[in-house]
Amino acid sequence: MEYRRLGRAGLKVSALSFGSWVTYGNQVDERGAIDMMSAARDYGVNFFDNAEVYAVGQSEELMGAALKKLGWDRLTYVVSTKFFWGLGNQFGDGVNAKNTLNRKYLMQAIDGSLRRFGLDYVDIVYCHRPDPHTPLEETVYAMHDMIARGKALYWGTSEWSADEIRAAWQIADRHHLHKPVVEQPQYNLFHRRRVEQEYARLYADIGLGLTTWSPLASGLLSGKYAQGVPADSRASLKSMAWMQEQLLDRQRNDIVIKLAGVAKELGCTTAQLAIAWCLKNPNVSSVITGASRIAQVHENMKALEISAQMTPEVMARIQATVGDAYA
């Protein structure tokens, strides 16, 4: 495994990490969580990503139970969570319980996550989306206090604009507060502009790190949707029905079929090629992978070997194949 610094921070995370979105609490139970996290760990993965909203808190509970049974030394792994959406309707219509980054919500949210994880602290906490209704200074101070109280070690953002990230960093810098060190954006062959263009100045200017999600474009880049929606796929889940239109996009599926030819020449799957492509970006600290069964963990982890084989010529062929079919 390769380990990369989280932007300019001293923390090192595995280039490939393991996340729980969609799978935990939907396709994966406690036994599956233990088996897959153990398999990822065997490859050298030290970063495990989660969020309060995933399976309405159940994902954190499953990961926490797995960590307890696995019994790893706390210094050897990194856990993250994310706050914004809240826990749905379990708090009724509480106006401060969801879709916010105000201080009241954030300070309660971290305590709830720590209880579900069974941990004293999380390593990274993200603001899961920007909140235009809360003063940014309030959010920055709350995140600083979360770290100052020892409940988290680093903080960052997810799907914030470059201007929002820079503004938060400047507030923290001006008041000598803990600064955001990482952003968690979607990044894959079909979703690139934000990482490659919008954030371009932030890597050198403020040392922004990236832990990117959806390297397979929710499974599209695996090639399994070229002929429709498989019965055992995430898109077949009722809660994920909203994904089907993008996953069945004919133009992009035709591109994936062409990418399969490039993958075959490298001796890998299309999914491994897509993950390996994300790894080639030097600004990416870690590519978050997911799995609903252990075989997918093994397949995903092999992408690191494939990345080493991807010469500039191979990267140029991939670019030519995708063309401008990305956002």
Keywords:
10 strands, alpha/beta, TIM Barrel, 42% helix, single chain, 327 residues
Structural features, described:
This protein has 327 residues and is of the alpha/beta class. The protein has a domain at 3-217 and 280-292: TIM Barrel (Alpha-Beta Barrel), CATH 3.20.20.100. Helix content is 42%, strand content 13%. It is built from 13 helices and ten strands. The chain has helices at 30-42, 58-70, 103-117, 136-148, 162-174, 193-198, 200-205, 244-247, 250-266, 270-279, 294-301, 303-309, 312-322, and strands at 3-5, 12-14, 16-19, 47-49, 78-83, 122-127, 152-157, 180-183, 209-212, 286-289. The strands form two sheets. It has an eight-stranded parallel beta barrel, surrounded by five helices. The protein has a two-stranded antiparallel sheet with strand order 1-2. Strand 7 (152-157), helix 5 and strand 8 form a beta-alpha-beta unit. Helix 9 runs antiparallel to helix 13 (312-322) and helix 10 (270-279) crosses helix 12. It is globular, with a radius of gyration of 19 Å. The two termini are 30 Å apart.
Low-confidence stretches: none
How far apart the termini lie comes to 30 Å
Q: Which structural class best describes the helix and strand composition?
A: alpha/beta
Number of helices: 13
Percentage of residues in DSSP E strands: 5-15%
Main beta sheet: 8 strands, parallel, barrel
Shape: globular
Main-sheet strand order equals 3-4-5-6-7-8-9-10
Helix content class:
40-55%
* Helix-strand sequence: EEEHEHEHEHEHEHHEHHHEHHH
Q: What's the architecture of the domain at 3-217 and 280-292 in CATH terms? A: Alpha-Beta Barrel
